[in-house]
Specification:
Blueprint: E1 11-14, H1 28-39, E2 47-49, H2 61-75, E3 81-85, H3 90-102, E4 107-110, H4 122-133, E5 140-144, H5 155-164, E6 168-173, H6 178-188, E7 196-199, H7 205-210, E8 215-218, H8 221-236, H9 240-257, H10 265-275, H11 293-305
Helix pairs in contact: 1-2, 3-4, 4-5, 8-9, 9-11, 10-11
Amino acid sequence: MTQRQRFHPHGVIPAVLLPFFDDLSIDEESFRAHLRDVASVSGISAITVNAHSTEAASCTFEEQVRVLAITKDEVGAKLPIVNGIYTDSSMEAQRLAKMAHDGGADALLVFPSGIYSFGQRPEMAIEHFKRIADVTDLPLIAFQYNPTGGQGYPLATLLRMVEAVPTIAAIKDWCGNAQLADRQIRALQTRQPPVNVLSTHSAWLFSSLVLGCNGLLSGSGSVIADLQSQLFQAVQNKDLALAQQIHNRIYHTAEVFYTEPFVDMHNRMKEALVLMGKLPRAVVRPPLVKIQPDEIERIRKALIAAGLLKP
């Protein structure tokens, strides 16, 4: 269906943020600057939009079309674009997938339906992905949530999914369990062709990469893409001493980004970019709300400790 050079999801893929004005409309100028800033980092392999980090849950279909168009305009000639498919409905997933295909995306990040929190059967996930594959041959990345919450796929289901839908090329792994993460890497990356495991265990990124992931896809890449790229390369080179040094810097940011309530993680990243002078404001859309000054101060101290901000 597509004539573009095919992208096999791998390597370091930052998920960027979406800046808003105080009236909650999209700040396109700041978004373009943010895209250029992240895309300038050496060693990244793609950029993700219309996902958690860009607050896709609060964006209309038309806004998602615009976000992809801006991204294509700013960085599409330089980097592949991964577009999120964030919806509970398989029919809407088809519409979003067709939009992303036509809009120039190079891969799709498919979120699990919220309905799975009430229980799931393998046939449900297979049907969801098949409907997407019916309208595009773009590589698909299955977002793997923690199975204990109901939305994650059991490993047996994942294996049935990749058999039934050959365009599933990777998973974004957020299973939250090191043993399961290891099993998934062994089961998926040894296939022919391999289904890459992209870690999004950003709170313990060093540990997850050492297990052997073929990449990472992370919202904190909106702030620390350079450190993530350096860490991934050090692990790939089996230079664990250097990887440990980089991890010691990333640790400080992970401690403030990935704390309770977890829902504020991208909220905190926006505040970090404001502190670093890379965003003019840290506006989020409801039901998210601005975090308190004491937490912003903790973020400032963490950025200093990580060597990303002067005291």
